[in-house]
Amino acid sequence: MNMPIIYGFAFATLSIFSMQTYAAQWNLDGSKSNVGFTTQGTGGTKANFNKVQGNAVFDPKNIKDTKINLEINASSLSAGIKTPLYKGSNGLNVSKYPKLTFKSTAITALSGNRYKMDGLLTMHGVTKPTTWTLNINPEGDALTMTASTQIDRTKWGMTHFENLIDETITLNAKTKFVKVQ
């Protein structure tokens, strides 16, 4: 038997396996995740969405291939006594726009576990690019991500309550993803 051929085949096989990606699929654990926003001004508030779904592809060795997708049930908004105001036709208009979505388009390493995340946010029927500060903390078969950004709500067509709420809204997400087995 020709040993160089066998060694060559073994080396080629090991090379193929060592080139496999370390990317893993992750599903959002909605019960351990919090997505919300804060507004400033006379009518300012802190609000949370109670129903969030999502998934991610995370490769710690190749962060640029990381993808994050979120879908938020707009009707699950909770803002205390201001909930009807924010859900109504002058706010998110949840009867017409029942969901908000976010899809990452690029993730760039900054330092340590800090990243810059670009993506498309669809809210109130309008899709616009956003840039977030993102922290990723892998913990075995769980992945905790925290992210925040500020947006101008008027760019998404939410122009009411200009005397009560500042145009700038801070969006926050603290999410926990579980590795798909």
TrEMBL record:
Signal peptide: 1-23
Keywords from the UniProt entry: Signal
InterPro entries: Lipid/polyisoprenoid-bd_YceI, TTHA0802/YceI-like_sf
Pfam families listed in its UniProt record: YceI
Domain (Lipid/polyisoprenoid-binding YceI-like) ranges: 25-178
Protein name: Lipid/polyisoprenoid-binding YceI-like domain-containing protein
Organism from which the protein derives: Acinetobacter populi
